[in-house]
Design a protein that fits this description.
The complex is a heterodimer of chains A (247) and B (242).
Chain A lengths: L1 E10 L2 E11 L4 E5 L6 H9 L5 E7 L2 E2 L6 H6 E4 L3 H4 L6 H11 L5 H11 L16 H13 L5 E5 L7 H18 L2 E5 L3 H7 L2 E6 L2 E7 H6 L5 H14 L4
Parallel strand pairs in A: 3-8, 3-9, 6-7, 7-8
Antiparallel strand pairs in A: 1-2, 1-4, 4-5, 9-10
Helix pairs in contact in A: 4-6, 6-7
Chain B lengths: L1 E3 L6 H8 L15 E2 L2 E2 L5 H7 L4 E4 L3 H4 L6 H13 L3 H14 L5 H5 L8 H13 L5 E5 L7 H18 L2 E6 L2 H7 L2 E6 L2 E7 L9 H8 L23
Parallel strand pairs in B: 1-6, 1-7, 4-5, 5-6
Antiparallel strand pairs in B: 2-3, 7-8
Classes of the chains: A alpha/beta (247), B alpha/beta (242).
Chain lengths: 247, 242
Amino acid sequence: MIEVDGLRVAFDGREVVHGVSFAVPTGASFGLVGESGSGKSTILRAISGLNPDWSGRVAIDGQELHPRRSREFYRRVQMVFQDPYGSLHPRQTVDRALSEPLIVHGMTDHDARIGRALADVALPSSMRFRYPHQLSGGQRQRVAIARALMSEPEVLLLDEPTSALDVSVQAEVLNLLRDIQDKRRLTFVLVSHNLAVVAHLCPIVGVMQGGDLVEAVSAADLRAGRVEHPHTAELRRLSVELEEVAA
Amino acid sequence: MGFVGVSGSGMSVTARSLLRLLPGHARITADRLAFDGIDVLRASERQMREIRGKRAGLILQDPKYSLNPVMTAGEQIAEAWRTHKGGRRRAAREAAVDLLEQVLIREPKRVADAYPHELSGGMGQRVMIAMMLAPDPELLIADEPTSALDATVQAEILRLIEELVSRRGMGLILISHDLPLVGHFCDRIAVMYAGRVVEELQAGELAQAKHPYTRGLLGCMPNLTHPKPRLPVMVRDPAWLA
């Protein structure tokens, strides 16, 4: 579904992604992990069309992408951001936020679609005319996910979707993402610095360091510690060390 | 000492009331609330200022919002130092560079001249810690000090705090929603839910936690070495409020 080949991204002549390649089959999930500044979000933004200054080859469903995207592209590829506080318009109700993609893409039957979308992300219909400040962080992130699903996309780009949420809400959102993926056969690219979160959702994990994809490893190998690159081993060690309960 | 719970369970408010740092309409009552023998509830504003910042430092979650964007890191640390210790500008500047060195910044001079937007999240958090250390506090309150940072930096910052605490003999109150993490860095853990401490235990007994809420907090985290096909979601029992 997604092919990325030799992707390079530069800001003001300074290259921050040095030729990254990976492919994600339809209905699969690919995870990107790394420290802040390693370029993982930059890759996501280049794919989504938020950043036009890239070179290399990016194709969705066999169609090569150009810096300028078609409206159809924006329908098929949607993004969910880290901060549900920042990504929803504070003066628009949930209903308004969810109608926007429908208006942009000329879709009909708004009322039924919004009702279904809220049900899909397990929000009660009473939330429909609330403002973002009347919702909790987890509810807001559900709204952001519902909004991304309004245009019936095939690809969902997830940029740290749970790192602004606390652990109990994180579990709910991760379960929700998995259910939606099974139901709609969505293709995910998930960016996170949390190895456990990425390995939970993605069978294949790409490890970024300083703008390079240093290793792509299966979640099973990552769990078992069968990794080759020292940076992957280091990230794994830290993650395991901090997550174990002192016995 | 660590406080753990989900957002809104009252961890930050508890820590802040210790410094009486709550909005004017908040009412604090307690059978006893004391800082080194000083009754916080009856202390004058003046006495409180002696405690706040000077004897007890507070490290907040996000360095991006807690640092002054139009002052260099060095100036901010020097300001904290002079406010509490007095002294000359130059001495304060030297102290600032020295403090930056203590929080393991490789080029303390360069960082002292940098503005907050020129620093990474981990760097910014170190500057915050350096600022809090300036008056040699006896107690450090760290309110989600690392949740805005990524895993490698998170571990570094927490180790740094741990080392400083043991070297300077400070007390530490760590607030987080990450239970295993608090278990690593604190001796005693208070688990909070809806404004109440529902369970208090030693870090070593975490695996034997009894309260379903504590067990839920532990169980709902995805784990790298022990994968779960589906994450258990916490079912909140109204009885926990009793």
